[in-house]
Amino acid sequence: MEEKVNQKEFIQKYTKQDESSYRIIRRIIVVLSGILYHPTAYGAQNIPEGPVVIAVNHRKAPDPAFVIRAVEDRAVRFLAAKKYYRGPLGFLLRMALTIQVDRSRHTPEVIAASDEILRRGGIIAIFPEGTRNRSEEEILLPFRYGAVSLARNNGAWIVPCVNTGWYKPFRSRVETYFGEPYKIEKDADLEVENEKLYRIMYDMYVKYGKEDPKLDRIRKTDEI
Predict the structure, then answer these.
(1) By CB count within 10 A, which of 22, 32, 36, 54 is most buried?
(2) In whole angstroms, what is the distance from residue 180 CA to residue 23 CA?
(3) Band of pLDDT at residue 31, cut at 50, 70 and 90
(4) Contact 176, 167 (CB under 8 A)
(5) Can you name the CATH fold of 7-223?
(6) Which positions ≥6 away from 80 have C-beta within 8 Å?
(7) What is this structure's pTM?
(8) What phi and psi, each to the nearest 5 degrees, are found at residue 205?
(9) Residues 37 and 110 sit within 8 Å (Cβ to Cβ)
(10) What is the rounded CA–CA span in Å between residue 70 and residue 89?
């Protein structure tokens, strides 16, 4: 039987949270990610005031940390799968004000809570690929429509973002690039907009990407 969720209570749960826990966990993220991955961010100044949807690629588990540490003065609310909300990790995810998503069913309450956060001028971060990209061939997995749909329906800015680099603790150097923000017209075709976002992020990754053998093959092909 499908679990019933009170949408009003769900929205209140995620829109009335005290951001003090987020500030604490962000400080921890800044310190730990700095020690483990030596990350550098470029273009975070591109994030405008008002409602923003950050669309970011997903290669490895620490990806959200690199976005959170790059945005210094505002809370970045990631959507995260329900399966991760167990034990210590679940505690940390709640501190980071992530929004829990049950992938086993349709979740209109998640959309409604995200809409409300954006209406209040917040930032929602989404992995358009929907899951971690473990492919040996694909630079990006096919995009789902959540990012462009949220941006279009709420008049929010959409900011493309890519994480790239070598994810080896203590030996790595991860780089995060934020692209130029843009808006999606209310009557825009989501399929067209999704393809546009995919192409922007694909081109960013090919341009800036490092330590990924898939890129070497693509670049050699482009040179032919």
Answers:
(1) 54
(2) 26
(3) very high
(4) no
(5) Glycerol-3-phosphate (1)-acyltransferase (3.40.1130)
(6) 64, 93, 98, 99, 100, 101
(7) 0.92
(8) -70, -40
(9) no
(10) 21
All residues at 6 or more sequence positions from 164 whose CB lies less than 8 Å from its CB, including other chains: 59, 174, 175, 176, 177, 205, 208, 209, 210, 211, 212
* 131: its two tokens: 């899951």
How buried is 49 (Cβ within 10 angstroms: 0-12 exposed, 13-18 middle, 19+ buried)?
A: exposed
Nearest to 77 by CA among 4, 21, 9: 21
pLDDT in tens, 137-164: 889 999 999 999 999 999 999 999 999 9
For 96-141, what is each residue's pLDDT tens digit?
999 999 887 888 999 999 999 999 999 999 999 999 999 878 899 9
- 220 has a pLDDT exceeding 70: no
Q: How far is CA 7 from CA 81, 112, 174, 199, in A?
A: 18, 8, 38, 34
Q: CA 16, CA 5: separation in Å to the nearest integer?
A: 18
Q: Which residue has the higher pLDDT, 194 or 14?
A: 194
Quick one: pLDDT band at residue 224, thresholds 50, 70, 90? very low
